């Protein structure tokens, strides 16, 4: 039976690792989280295979045969060594996983002195992004433009109910809570266009509450910024864009009305 | 108020040849009087509200939105009194001499006895189980609506408001009106029998516990008729969304109070029964694990449930009387009050998930021991692990709030405690599979569901450990990965144990055998379609599909269609179960007292049991799972003094009729 278990692991772990679980890796944080998940898979497969192996082996080997209707099983009440093992070994595993997860968290949330601040204001049912500039002014945009490889500090606010801000490619998410400002740190690492989603139920328009995140090379980002009017005037000229990814309605970041059928 | 004693009513009925007069029907406990009291209750709510509004110069004096919450509280209470849950208490409180042997509300002889206030735990247990399965169908139907809507991207037949209402009611109904009560109902029937008691400690309170439930269920369903639609902020009902929604919210906030009261009263009843009413010789370490599990669950219920009552009362006060508990922009604090809702809510709702699985653990222990013909491996650690889960269960609530914006430092201890809970849970899973080892496995329907549970619950537990790791949780929080996890532990976990338990105790409760072939069809169809429905949700969740959305991005379309089709198969598989149960109950083959050849006490009496369970009080002389131990006996029907005397007689291997024997406890290699 141990052999079956080992074979099961030998098949299960590579299989689990090969599956493309995550969307494209788009940030430093995402890299660390994808690795953490791989470690979790490597830890989980043996446990699941163990339970399955014992269940299936027992069903195959110990099932009642005809003539055994009155027969009882072996009167085994316990085995102290086994019970200690299956208490201590999981404890060690848990301690290891928690420690590793903590280091990932700590690394992901490190502060960077030169980080760019972006304000994210959410309300039913849309996002607004603003970039503070000198003199108390800011650039306001419905689309979140970000320079590649520069750490960003998002300041999340809500004007009505709890919303959330999630970019799957960044693997980062935080709620926007009315009454307070919450802080989320991300360093994008890949040029591309990604969705930002609201992931906290906020009312009828929750399912359509999305915005577009466009990570562009730093030079293009600077030139975009310089062409923006301050304090929310409509952007001048064409903002730099990548070809939008297919199948993401709401990529323009406009609010959708909540009544009636959509596209 | 004139309360007619039931015996006087039946005398009147016997006297008049045309049955009880209408006056007598309205004075006697029952549905007629309950209907009358409903009207009185509504008039009371109407009058009280208008009077207060007039005195406080609030206009308009007659305002439906003000009357509604008062009516939602008053009418059910009047209903309960009218139905007869409080007759004896009023009788006693009015100073009349007590009647200690009044069993007039006890026992069932016709189907009508199941529709009145009944103090027999076996009747109440049956009422609970049937009532709960009705709400399983309601919740399941709502699930079919959800999956129909999500089969394709682009809005279909539900508006977003309606869709939000559908999934909110789906979860609330299944949690408060199915999973929690069905376990209470099965335990209600089985537990007193298992400990050798004639009934529960408080039979009238038990009856009240049951009748509180239809109120909660009807109230939740009625919310669909409220102006503005059903409550639609999720079963989690986060403020300030919930405090700024139409009156449908009130139906949830108040239904939860009734369901919660039912749960607490039952838990108190279980605790007192288990502590004080065990048969002679039944020490705690000779209790069947189902009793241990319900003991642990009852501790969770009495401590935790008041917190959800509190959180919903605060929402109610914010909504109806314009308090500012959770108001971010007005009132005291102005910082973080919003998040306080989540702390209060989850302080109950995390223990709630253990309330929803621990009794299932007890059922699995019973089924596996009997069907593998072996003692439960590591009985003492199984009992201790239940208690460990109870204690630890109160320390993990904020793992539901890792992305809530709460103070970041809280996440770390919550991650640690959440991970630690895996240890006692793992002990249980490993002990169960060790119980199978070198057993003689009877692979009938209850056993199949128990084995299926081991698979799906392990998967749900593994995804739970993954969720404990904060960085990963940040990625998948509020996505379909969470939906996958919760359904693996609630459907593949709780519901599989419920099916196992219902099939297992069906002969005892109804006196009939179910069709095992149909049961196996039910199992396999369910097991396969369940995994195909909820397995892929892990994938689309990690890919980024949010939950609670009526609409999703096109990239998720293929998986959603597949999941919806599989979910329809899953829904259909429940019909096999229903057919089997109904047809078997009405005309299946009669069941013997002990068709599974089990040792626990409920199987030592007839199927169904006599009205007061035991004609002779049993004495417990050994452990409950001593299969394979020659001469082992759990309970005998002789008084304790005689049980001490007498030497062991030689017995054949395997169980047979109860005989004297030595205590089978101890460590055998």
Outline the structure in words.
The complex is a heterodimer of chains A (263) and B (669). In chain A, the strands form 3 sheets. A 5-stranded mixed sheet of chain A has the order 3-2-1-5-8, with no helix packed on it. In chain A, 35% of the residues lie in helices and 22% in strands. Chain A folds into 2 domains: 2-61 and 82-108, no CATH class; 116-232, Cupredoxins -  blue copper proteins (Immunoglobulin-like), CATH 2.60.40.420. In chain A, a hairpin with a 4-residue loop joins strand 6 and strand 7. Chain A is built from 4 helices and 10 strands, in the order αααββββββββββα. Chain B folds into 4 domains: 6-89, no CATH class; 118-311, Cytochrome c oxidase-like, subunit I domain (Cytochrome C Oxidase, Chain A); 357-590, Cytochrome C Oxidase, Chain A (Up-down Bundle), CATH 1.20.210; 592-664, no CATH class. In chain B, strands 1-2 form a two-stranded antiparallel sheet. Mean pLDDT of chain B is 91; it is low at 1-15 and 646-669. Chain B has 21 helices and 2 strands. In chain B, helix 7 runs parallel beside helix 18 (480-510). Chain B has helices at 6-15, 22-27, 31-55, 64-83, 87-93, 121-149, 160-194, 203-222, 248-276, 289-321, 337-355, 358-372, 379-393, 411-420, 422-436, 445-468, 470-476, 480-510, 516-543, 557-587, 640-644; strands at residues 619-620, 635-636. At the A-B interface, helix 2, helix 3 and strand 7 of A face helix 7, helix 11, helix 13, helix 14 and helix 15 of B.
